[in-house]
Amino acid sequence: MTQYRLLYSDTGRNWKPYHQDGNIWAFSGNSNSESAVRHELQQGIVTRFLRLIPLAWSEEGRIGLRIEVYGCSYWADVINFDGQGVISYRFKVKKMKIIKDVIALRFKTSESEGVILHGEGQQGDYITLELRMAKLQLQINLGSNQYGSILGHTSVTTGSLLDDNHWHLVMIERYRRNVNFTLDGHTQHFRTNGEFDHLDLDYELSFGGMPYSGKPVGGGRKNFKGCMESINYNGDNITDLARRKKLDTSSFQRNLSFTCVETHTFPVFFNASSFLQLPGRANHNTVSVGFQFRTWNPDGLLLFSNLDDGTLEISLEDGKITIHINVSKGARNYRVDLSSGSGLNDGQWHAVRLLAKENFAMLTVDGEEVSAVRSTSPLSITTGGTYHLGGYFLQTPFPPSQRSFQGCMQAILVDDHPADLHAVEKGTVGAFENVSLDMCAIIDRCMPNHCEHGGRCKQTWDSFSCSCDGTGYSGATCHTSNYEPSCEAYKHLGRSSDTFWIDPDSSGPLGPFRVSCKMTEDKVWMTVVNNLPPKTLITGSSREKRTVLQVNYSASMDQVTAITTSAEHCEQQITYICRMSRLLNTPDGTPYTWWVGRGSEKHFYWGGSGPGIQKCACGIDRNCTDPKYDCNCDADAKQWREDSGLLTYKEHLPVSQVAIGDTNRPGSEAKLTVGPLRCHGDNNYWNAASFTTPSSYLHFPTFQGETSADISFYFKTSSPYGVFLENLGNTDFIRLELKSPKVISFSFDVGNGPVEVTVHSATPLNDDQWHRVMAERNIKEAVLQLDQTYRTSQLAPAQG
């Protein structure tokens, strides 16, 4: 056996395929009869049964292998939750003020909704872990104030398709506002909203649902129905305490069960070439069928049957369930069309029920009467006795509008009787082809979301795509910025003075923003404006109660910091116009006014001066109106005076706040102006290195590409070939090189064999002129671009 898939189950039913890198993984076997091939699973699994599905084998013999499985024994206390009962863990004291939490448990369920744990306090604090649409949601609030200015509610969602009736491990680790939320080995780190860091809970924490004595905040939430094991809360083994009757379990209608009650679903997995044929009643005047399905595809054939005198089709069309019944009676044709539901290709289980008989047809979706659609068109049905589910490939005078279905079905009813899929599996009833029985191999390709920078993920059964509209980024995963990193880069492209969008960190986390670019002969100025009106009037401030003016910019502080960090020079004009309002209280007093810059540090120097020098510009130039002071305003004159100048220490810029403290006396007032931030030069752009000998090189830290990465640079050379960049791992590598005067090559190996992407230039590239190279590799494709003229891409392989 040269290739196989691995399935696992803890019951010997309801198999789950092993996933790796977001795909159902295909393991390589051996290519001869002597060698052994060893695989270590990236994600450990807890299971009792393993099943191997051969995918490829030697053509010279039969399928065969010898296998050894390595692992360790596993045991845990299990509690079965019936959807009614709740386990209450009572605290030793009535009110708990908790600064640190560690909660761990494993769960499995076939339900998409249900509260796993909940705790709340009278001050509005709460913590809730629940399933919503088969995703795991953690809601936590460490406190909001009564005025509503501090909102502590924080909600984080992880995982998908968790109603697969397989075990999932969840851990919540909280210290103050820092939380690690881990599901099946994947961790999200976040900080809770608000300013409080204690979780104030009253009396108890409940597992399996909301407590009946709780406040009416449940919002109709369902209790958890399924199994949990190894429940631990801050060192206490909840499952063990429940077994020893140390906890309140009185809400359970029956005795608490410590064995997992298995559901009896039997899923069927269809691909584009599958079908399942089931027998039904022939020559009957009523059709009554039902099933549950889940898929990502908007279209597909769910059920088809040749009636005695027509056809019956149940299809998914644009995410809606559509029924087509065609009946021919003599020379007349009768047609009934029904449609219900919307967005049913969301990966969730949906139930379909159809009842059709003489002059009556009713379609119900998800059991809701609201969704029921009735038809009373003239209709007379005589069943044909055979039903095809998931595909129909035979020739027929009236073929179905869809031919196949990719997805899963379960709970199949034919003529009001559950389909005996065990008998189908044994071959005694019906027929099937390319169907996987007792397994639903659905994958959520949008979880985790590989669309970057806010791109929206859309998926079908086989692939996902990213919609990058409105993000400022493009490419298969919205990784590539549409904008240049600075005004310098726009000037290099031949652009003149204007307002431009820039993206200082290109494909990094900072988003694009607008700046004004002024191109002069020797400098390129970049300007970021703020919202403080010129000559803002300040009165009524004192040292005890300073007036604090907030200065907000047309970009976030992180974005502005990226500009100042890379700029060669930055400056900002600041002006204080005063009448009987002292500024820095020079020469030796405590300043009345200060400003706050980058890093939230207070600064006690003014424009025209520098860090550590408590003076204004006139004090540096020694031309203050009163030579006893180092600022014009510090003379406390009754006439209007002014202190203004440029702040030029870029590590302190931009100005984010100004605190003013001397305008509360009679006749005392001041006016403040903070000009825009202006910078020129781009150290990230003008950072050329010359490689003068064959042995010249620059060494950088190890390149961590993971699932997406990009490299860009300018080069000029007279050499016909050479390696631009190379990084070698044990087997992985990445290389960019000039292979010939007209060919650039981007090659790499990320574990599934070497890949090479090349671009061919129409003119030689060793012309001693600047040329720009951009290379990107992501989970969807590899891209190589030269001079914004030549672009080549290559799709990534389907498996990782």
Give a concise summary:
The chain is mainly β and 800 residues long.
Descriptive tags:
800 residues; mainly beta; Jelly Rolls; 5 domains; eight-stranded antiparallel beta sheet; seven-stranded antiparallel beta sheet; 57 strands; globular; EGF-like domain; Contactin-associated protein-like 2; signal
Query: Treating each run of at least 4 consecutive H or I residues as one helix, how many helices?
Result: 5
How many separate structural domains? Answer: 5
Helix content range: under 10%
Largest sheet properties? 8 strands, antiparallel
What form results from the Cα inertia axes?
A: globular
Task: Write structural notes for this entry.
- InterPro entries: ConA-like_dom_sf, EGF, FA58C, Fibrinogen-like_C, Fibrinogen_a/b/g_C_dom, Galactose-bd-like_sf, Laminin_G, Neurexin-related_CASP.
- It is found in: Membrane.
- Pfam families: F5_F8_type_C, Laminin_G_2.
- It is a single-pass type I membrane protein.
- Residues 78-260, 265-440, 687-800 form the Laminin G domain.
- The chain is mainly β and 800 residues long.
- The chain folds into five domains: 3-56, no CATH class; 78-243, Jelly Rolls (Sandwich), CATH 2.60.120.200; 268-437, Jelly Rolls (Sandwich), CATH 2.60.120.200; 527-680, Jelly Rolls (Sandwich); 709-795, Jelly Rolls (Sandwich).
- The strands form twelve sheets. Strands 20, 22, 27, 28, 29, 31, 32 and 34 form an eight-stranded antiparallel β-sheet that branches. Strands 7, 9, 14, 15, 16, 18 and 19 form a seven-stranded antiparallel β-sheet that branches.
- It starts with a strand and ends in a 5-residue tail after the last strand.
- 35% of the residues are buried.
- The model is unreliable at 213-218 (pLDDT under 50).
